[in-house]
Amino acid sequence: MTFGIPREAESVGAGSGAAVTAVADVRPAAVSGGTAAGSAPELSPAPTTAPGTGPADGSARARHTGEPHRPGPPHAQARIDLAAIRANVGRLREAAGSAEVMAVVKADGYGHGMVAAARAALAGGATWIGVAGMQEALALRTAGVPGRLLAWLLTPGDDWNAAVAAGVELSAGADWAVRAAVRAAHATGRPARLHLEVETGLGRGGACAGDWPALLDTVARAEAAGSVHVVGVWSHLARADEPGHPGCDRQLAHFRSAVARARRAGLTPEVLHLSNSAATLTLPEARFDLVRPGLAVYGLSPVPDRAGPAELGLRPAMTLTARLASVKRVAAGHGVSYGHRYRTARESTLGLVPLGYADGVPRHASQAGPVLVAGRRHTVAGTVCMDQFVVDLGDSPAAPGDEVVLFGPGDRGEPAAQDWARAAHTISHDIVTRIGTRVPRTYTGDAPAGTC
Ligand SMILES: Cc1ncc(COP(=O)(O)O)c(C=O)c1O
Question: Is the same domain home to 322 and 305?
């Protein structure tokens, strides 16, 4: 079911809640071998941007929905399957055993829409939501997302008072953070709820072994004074995506001894947490009381060399599509895009896809990124530009307006986000998260708003 609009094919959401009848298909006839080839395929269903499921008010995408309506389908869209997110969280709950699930929705829900992803994750059984920055946490609260919420990447300039007042739980891995939390507690009259971050080997945030005892003493004093409450102790794994790597065992051992030291300092954390998606699915001993999966919530495999989403019981939630902006027949030897890194081997049809690196299509996937057009796989021809890239369609019939699928769950034989990750020498986190604000998100499979 599509959320918000009864029949997608009949109306286009204007973002203001108005529904506007879609215009007729006025695309030119298809190009095939230099001649028009029959009628163009039907329009795919027109999307709607679901009210209340986009990012918090004021974000670029929320503003986008308020712009004057331009009739016709958008030139590109990321379709988000919220039912898949719910089911993925259900699968993660199973994998987590007795541990609770914190769905990580930072970075705009890994590009899927932070508020929509959080609501779907809670509906799927997550009992916590995790974000990096305080602004993300506050935006979730502003949008009315309830429940336990942790933010872990904080700076002295953040609005600690607002976060404590909003019941956001906060990470502290250094003295300055504890001091900021104490000040916020005094300002708001509420104890700050802290999760102490210990460095166990990732070399990122968290207190190193040498600083941990002093941090614990500071926190224990603040807790005794009623300014803070230590809710958790946490860390993050460096190599969970390499199951069996000895580094994971070393980090686990560090973590256990840091927790033991915290207990000796008189702290009684309610939750210990260490696991991302990969550890949730492959490292049972790292699950403790709470797991923090992100990628797997969105249906992507955190261990792509070992297992795909389906083998892990996951379903990718994002489908990224565009419509061909132009189609033309060119001679053999035609240079394509900046630097002419691609030349047609023979007379051929070039399709122009109106998505570029400003939209998150990695420039590193030049000459390599896969797409599906009319049921056939093609590869990016030449350099990915800021707003567009070209596909050599050979002799396949094609017309402006035809759908191009960059990635999705694979139901129609389309590439996966992981295929783009391989093409761009990166990870699938990077592929979905980078999809930019010019690409409207549309939502399917939602439960009624406000049910979480
Ligand atoms: C602290 C922390 N926990 C959990 C996650 C989720 O990781 P993943 O998306 O690999 O599951 C992240 C993501 O980078 C993170 O930074």
Answer: no
Q: Domain of 374?
A: 8-80+317-444
Tell me how far the alpha carbon of residue 276 lies from the centroid of ligand 1, in angstroms: 5
Residue 349 maps to a domain: yes
Residue 232's nearest CA partner among 413, 99, 381 is 99
Distance from the Cα of residue 358 to its chain's centroid: 17
Residues 71 and 158 in one domain: no
Which atom of ligand 1 is least distant from the CA of 277?
11
CATH code of 246's domain: 3.20.20.10
The structural domain count of the chain equals 2
**Ligand 1 centroid, distance to 91 Cα (angstroms):** 17
- Note whether residue 207 is domain-resident: yes
Q: Which residues pair with 170 in a beta bridge?
A: 151, 194
What is the number of the ligand 1 atom nearest to the C-alpha of 293?
11
Give the pLDDT confidence score for residue 298 in this predicted structure.
98
What's the 106 CA to ligand 1 centre distance in angstroms?
9
Report residue 72's pLDDT band, with 50, 70 and 90 as the boundaries.
Answer: low
CA 195 to ligand 1 centroid distance, Å: 15
| 227 plus 295 within the same structural domain | yes
Residue 171 has pLDDT above 80, yes or no: yes
Whether residue 293 has its Cβ less than 6 Å from ligand 1: yes
Give first-to-last CA distance, the chain, whole Å: 18
* CATH code of the domain in which 33 resides: 2.40.37.10
Index of the ligand 1 atom closest to the CA of residue 106: 13
Q: Is 445 in the pocket of ligand 1 (CB under 6 A)?
A: no
Residue 208 lies in a domain: yes
At 331-373, the pLDDT tens digits run: 999 999 999 999 999 999 999 999 999 999 999 999 999 999 9
Is the beta carbon of 255 within 6 A of some atom in ligand 1?
no
Q: What pLDDT was estimated at residue 102?
A: 98
381 lies in some domain: yes
Residues 89, 195: Cα–Cα separation, whole Å: 23
Which residues does the annotation mark as catalytic?
106, 338
Query: How far apart (Å, rounded) are the C-alpha atoms in residues 61 and 30?
Result: 33
Distance, CA of 403 to CA of 395 (rounded, Å): 17
DSSP code of residue 212: H
Output the pTM of the full model: 0.86
